[in-house]
Specification:
This protein has a 12-stranded mixed beta sheet. By secondary structure, the chain is mainly beta. Mean pLDDT is about 80; it is low at about 1-35. A hairpin with a 2-residue loop joins strand 7 (about 145-155) and strand 8. The chain has helices at about 45-55, 130-135; strands at about 60-70, 75-85, 90-95, 100-105, 110-115, 120-125, 145-155, 155-165, 170-180, 180-190, 195-205, 225. The two termini are about 15 Å apart. It has one domain (about 40-210): Lipoprotein localisation LolA/LolB/LppX (outer membrane lipoprotein receptor (LolB), chain A).
C-alpha cells in the first residue's frame, strides 16, 4: 500500500479518495462539481483556510461522499462519521454501503475492511502531506504541500482550490468550501476527471478528543498486511 498517493483506497463497490461531507439538496447538487464561479478571485477562500489551520484543532462531523464520472454519472455513495485532531490524527468511519475504518494515529495509517476481515497498516510518511486528509488534520506546515489555484465565494461558502505540489498523487485538485470557519464541502478531481464530493453535517469544532480515540487494534482473526 502506498500511503503517500491516496488518503483512502477502495475495494470494488467502495468509495475511493474519500473526504471529504449528508443529504445533498438543491439544484447545485444535481452536478458532480459546482458550476464555474466568477472569474474574479476572492481572497476570502485563502483566508478561510488559514483561519481553519490556525484556529481549529479538532473536529467531528457526519459525512456523505459521492463518486461521479467525468460525464456526470453517479457511481457510488457512502456515509459515515469523521473525527479529526491535530497533529496527524483522523478517523473516517464508513458505515454504508460497507463498513470500513481509515485511522491515522499520528504515526501509522490503518485501513480496516470489516467484511473482508482485513487491515492494512503503513507509516504516515512525508509524502502523505500532499493528501486532502492531512491538509485538514496536519499541522500548519502541511499547507506548504499545496499550491493555491484560486479562491472565491460561491453558494454561500468561501472556497479555495488547491493543487498538490507532489508528483504522482491520485488527485489533481481539491476544493474546500468553508462556512463559519469550518469546512462544509469538498470536491476532489482525479486524473480521470472523476469527482469525489463530500458534504459535512453536524460539524462540531474543537471538541475534546483524547488521543485514544484514534487508536486502532485489529480484532482477533483479522488478517493484517504491513507493519513489518
Amino acid at each position: 500500500m502506498d500511503s503517500g498517493k491516496s488518503w483512502l483506497r477502495r475495494r470494488p463497490g467502495a468509495i475511493e479518495h474519500g473526504l471529504v461531507w449528508l443529504a445533498l439538496a438543491g439544484s447545485a447538487w444535481c452536478q458532480p462539481a459546482d458550476p464555474n464561479p466568477p472569474a474574479d478571485s476572492d481572497p476570502e477562500g485563502s483566508a478561510a483556510l488559514e483561519r481553519f489551520l490556525a484556529d481549529v484543532q479538532s473536529l467531528t462531523a457526519e459525512f456523505t461522499q459521492e463518486l461521479w464520472t467525468a460525464d456526470q454519472r453517479l457511481l457510488e455513495t457512502a456515509t459515515g462519521t469523521l473525527l479529526l485532531k491535530r497533529p496527524n490524527r483522523f478517523l473516517w468511519n464508513y458505515v454504508e454501503p460497507i463498513e470500513q475504518l481509515v485511522v491515522a494515529d499520528g504515526e501509522q495509517l490503518w485501513m480496516y475492511d470489516v467484511e473482508l476481515a482485513q487491515a492494512t497498516v503503513a507509516p504516515l510518511e512525508e509524502s502523505a502531506a500532499s493528501s486532502p486528509a492531512m491538509l485538514l488534520s496536519g499541522d500548519q506546515a502541511v499547507r506548504d504541500g499545496f499550491d493555491v489555484v484560486r479562491s472565491y465565494v460561491f453558494d454561500g461558502l468561501e472556497w479555495i482550490e488547491l493543487a498538490p505540489k507532489l508528483d504522482g498523487t491520485d488527485f489533481t485538485s481539491v476544493s474546500i468550501g468553508f462556512k463559519g470557519g469550518a469546512p462544509q464541502r469538498l470536491s476532489l478531481v482525479d486524473g480521470l476527471n472523476q469527482v469525489t464530493r463530500i458534504d459535512l453535517t453536524n460539524v462540531v469544532v474543537n471538541p475534546q478528543l483524547p488521543d485514544t480515540a484514534f487508536e486502532f487494534e485489529p480484532p482477533a482473526g483479522v488478517d493484517v498486511i504491513g507493519g513489518g
